[in-house]
UniProtKB/TrEMBL annotation:
The modification 4-aspartylphosphate is found at D54. May play the central regulatory role in sporulation. It may be an element of the effector pathway responsible for the activation of sporulation genes in response to nutritional stress. Spo0A may act in concert with spo0H (a sigma factor) to control the expression of some genes that are critical to the sporulation process. One of its GO terms (molecular function) is transcription cis-regulatory region binding. Gene3D superfamilies: 3.40.50.2300, 6.10.250.690, Winged helix-like DNA-binding domain superfamily/Winged helix DNA-binding domain. Keywords: DNA-binding, Phosphoprotein, Transcription, Transcription regulation. Residues 132-232 form the OmpR/PhoB-type domain. This is Stage 0 sporulation protein A homolog. Residues 132-232 bind DNA. It comes from Candidatus Fusicatenibacter merdavium.
Length: 234
């Protein structure tokens, strides 16, 4: 892979420069867009591998930008938002963002999220030729064809809902999935965020079956008030 190309969408010059300096040190290429109009234009012409998107832009709603880009591109979008924009963050993930960072963030955190996003780019481009019917992540294994789940050598018996839930998270490994998104995918569009309590119950029983320490899960991480994420192991 050539040098990864990152598009920094940020109207705060100080934050934008900090990100740019960090990327430069990592040997990443980047371009900056200070507003929504420039972001959409650069997304089309520069074709970045990953977009870092500030939600609070002077001329546009960050969520609208995500929707626009999602209509023609699958590029990973990492939302960068201030804590006061928490509800927007959930909306952004529902609109198709891959991940989020809350300001102020550390440079290490930024780079870790970028690596996850870039790994997804590479996986996506391989998908066509290597579509496999077995998912393996650490000790966890899903045989999609047989509908079986294993932890190490041991087969785990899941209920249909637990199985659907696990497959959904596994297929989106590294991505934060919102409560809303999960509920819609598992139970259908008639359900809403008010049903998070049943999701919580199924998540608890699923964790008991696949996690060595359900109280300190290593596979399925909770993002409080947002949703869940399957973590890539090792
Ligand atoms: Ca801003």
């Amino acid at each position: 892979m050539n040098k990864p190309q990152i598009l920094i969408v940020e109207d705060d010059a100080a934050v934008s420069n900090l990100i740019a300096t960090t990327l430069e040190l990592q040997n990443y290429q980047f371009r900056k867009a200070p507003n929504g109009a420039a972001a959409v234009m650069e997304a089309l012409s520069y074709r970045p591998d990953v977009m870092l998107l500030d939600l609070g832009l002077p001329d546009a709603d960050g969520v609208e930008i995500i929707r626009k880009i999602r209509s023609w591109s699958n590029m990973p979008i990492i939302v960068v938002s201030a804590r006061s924009e928490d509800t927007d963050k959930v909306e952004a993930l529902d609109a198709g963002a891959d991940d989020y960072l809350t300001k102020p963030f550390s440079v290490d955190e930024l780079l870790a999220r970028l690596r996850v996003a870039l790994r997804r780019v590479r996986c996506d481009s391989r998908k066509v030729t290597e579509e496999s019917s077995v998912y393996a992540n650490g000790e966890l294994k899903i045989d999609y064809a047989a509908g079986c789940v294993f932890v190490g050598e041991k087969e785990v018996h899941l209920t249909p809902i637990e199985y659907k839930l696990l497959c959904l998270l596994a297929k989106n490994t590294g991505k934060v999935l919102t409560h809303n998104f999960i509920i819609r995918e598992i139970w259908g569009s008639g359900y809403s965020a008010s049903d998070t309590s049943s999701l919580w119950v199924f998540m608890a029983t699923l964790r008991k079956k696949i996690e060595a320490e359900p109280a300190h899960p290593k596979y399925i991480k909770t993002h409080i008030g947002v949703g869940y994420r399957m973590m890539r192991q090792g």
